[in-house]
Design goal:
Layout: H1 2-23, E1 39-44, E2 47-48, E3 53-58, E4 65-68, E5 74-76, E6 89-96, E7 98-100, H2 106-114, E8 124-126, E9 141-144, E10 151-156
Parallel strand pairs: 1-10
Antiparallel strand pairs: 1-2, 1-5, 3-4, 3-6, 6-9, 7-8
Amino acid sequence: MRSHLHAKIFLLLATITLAVSLGCSSEPPDDRPARSKVTGTVTLAGSPVEDARIQFHAANNSQGAIGQTKADGTFTLTTYVAGDGALPGDYVVTISKKEVESGLSEEEKLKMQEMGRPIPSPKTKELMPREYTKSTSSPLKVTVTADGENHFDFDVK
């Protein structure tokens, strides 16, 4: 009975040791293509744009990358995991910032529910010039390099 208990304790300790050693590796294995860090800023007529979605669309239809601007207009791109950058290559860049237009008041929503009517989704309004929001019309084109600085500033007019 006592040796059975020792065997269970040994097995438990071996399992914990293995789990800790696997979890403590300096970098997780990553068999995805190498990415390059990409940063930049988005301004509209010279003023920083907060909460804009910036998207790099790969010209060769490979994996693109996305980012979200901060209050100062800065962004860092993500392809697979937060902040990992973009694959080297050519991209068309789109920038979009939407504002939710005021919808129904809470009172109006309750009234519609009582009447058994569906509550309409709130409408959004695009704040960026239309040409910058679509990959087919955006004039913004960049090349991300494997080596070197990949910092891009976009001043939308």
